[in-house]
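Our preliminary data section would be incomplete without showing what the modeling component actually yields. Below, a chain of 83 amino acids is followed by its predicted structure, encoded as tokens that our downstream tools consume directly.
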Amino acid sequence: MTREALRAAIDAALRSVAPESDPARLADDADLRETLDLDSMDFLSFVVALHRATGVDIPERDYARLATLEGAVQYLGPRVPSG
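Predicted structure:
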């Protein structure tokens, strides 16, 4: 998955839990939970949406690595199954 496709998947996952958000306007290092006012269930829904979009299993211990857009790209990029 290209970086652009991965970013599009992350943006779609964010819009699925925060429909009023515009991920394209977020800074890459913005804290997603704080900036978008995501509660624990919203963030869990975001993680589930990322899993569905990418096929990457994301253990709870790694959730903090998904706190920003860039963090999510860096975490998911090398883990997305090829093919």
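The chain has four helices and no strands. The helical segments are 3-17, 32-35, 40-54, 69-76. Preliminary results of this kind motivate Aim 1 of the renewal.
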